[in-house]
Amino acid sequence: MILLYADDPGGANYLAPLAESMLSRSIPFRFQIAPVLAEFAAERKMNCVVRSDAVTADGMLADVRLLVIGTSEDPGCFAHGLVEAARARGIPSLGVVDMAVNADRRFRGYSNNPLQYAPDWLAVTEASTAAAYVALGYPSDRLLVCGHPHYDQVRARRRIFLTQDRAALRQVAYPQAPANRPIWLFLAEGVDQLNPAASFRSPDYTLHGRGGHDFRGVIVLEEVLDAAAELSPQPWVVLRLHPKNRPEDFISLAPELGMISQTGDPLPLVWAADLVLGMTTMLLLEAYLLGRPHLAILPRHVERAWLTTIAEGLTKSVCTRAELRATLSLAYESHIPNEDALPKDLTSRLLEKILDLIEF
After folding, report:
1. Are 298 and 208 in contact, with CB atoms under 8 Å apart?
2. What count of Cα atoms within 13 Å lies in the side-chain half-sphere of residue 353?
3. Residue 249 class from Cβ within 10 Å (0-12 exposed, 13-18 middle, 19+ buried)?
4. Among 146, 174, 209, 256, which residue is least crowded by beta carbons within 10 Å?
5. In this structure, are 266 and 214 located in the same domain?
6. Contact between 124 and 130 (Cβ < 8 Å)
7. Is residue 302 domain-shared with residue 318, that is, in the same domain?
8. Closest alpha carbon to 283 in 303, 269, 304, 299
9. Model-level pTM greater than 0.85?
């Protein structure tokens, strides 16, 4: 039995395609998630079971021969206990890392050791993330550079969207949108629980918003709203909240927004929008894979390394108000995603590597 386990949305998105592949190949597995992910997983029809609050880490491993976990922004997450219990039982473990940011904090827990709860193997999205873990002392021969299985699912969704009437989808996704105004979809992010300071204003910020808020997401959204107000016709700005956002995080800006979305499948919103704006959320990378016009707006230059498509120049990014204004005139251009820019057929390749390396 293979146990797949996720505490956070990013880990669940990574593991869900793997679960589907195991199911199709009749490989015995269980895909379990933290209770906080119940609604998130249900909306995306993930083939998983919500973990009971009463179960222990050791109890979950009773019939398990391989543990595969996603990472979490909670230093006290359940997955850390699973890794410890797997070590005690001699069960091999694999961790999947969906983004490069916070490499030194994902397996630290409350300790000072960045690899305290690191599994026996790591599957990472790109070579730069692998290099970050090698620099921390993780064995290079136990790192798998595998991209992200969710990429293939998004590519498949693009093929479906291309067969549909986008104008009709726009009416369904944005029923209140004025017909004569472009739709800007802003993708929010929650506070980084592994490094909270990274989510708030610092001296090296090159975007400043209106000056009344220190939360990174509010600062950038203020810049977006101010830029939109200067255009004619004025864009209709929609806020898509991250699963870890609270609606009150953006309450001061609510009167200026056409719509606020928090639940449901986000990809129709991305496809139907005229322009997708964000910072470093994975959903911005999905906008690239869908071929939709999109732009990363970053309050610090260093954040360009946080998302693969920004770091590789596939997603255009701006870091100042002047750059934002200058770029918006070109931002509505759609594109055909470079099929070779990000790895393909990842789910089957990762599964084969797991079965081979772990000798399951």
Report:
1. no
2. 21
3. buried
4. 256
5. yes
6. yes
7. yes
8. 269
9. no
Q: Does the pLDDT value for residue 216 go beyond 80?
A: yes
Alpha-carbon distance 158 to 153, whole Å? 9
Name the token pair of 20.
């589907």
CATH number, domain of 13, equals 3.40.50.2000
Q: Domain limits at 203? A: 151-328
Tell me the pLDDT of the chain averaged across its residues.
89
* Helices vs. strands in the chain: H and E counts, helices first: 13, 13
Does residue 336 belong to any structural domain of this protein? no
Residues 142 and 160 in one domain: no
pLDDT tens figures, 319-352: 999 999 988 866 677 777 776 677 666 777 778 8
Residue 359, both tokens: 């000798």
Range 114-119 average pLDDT? 93
What per-residue confidence (pLDDT) applies to 236? 97
Residues 41 and 136 in one domain: yes
Amino acid sitting at position 252? S
Provide, rounded to the nearest whole percent, the portion of the chain with pLDDT above 70. 96
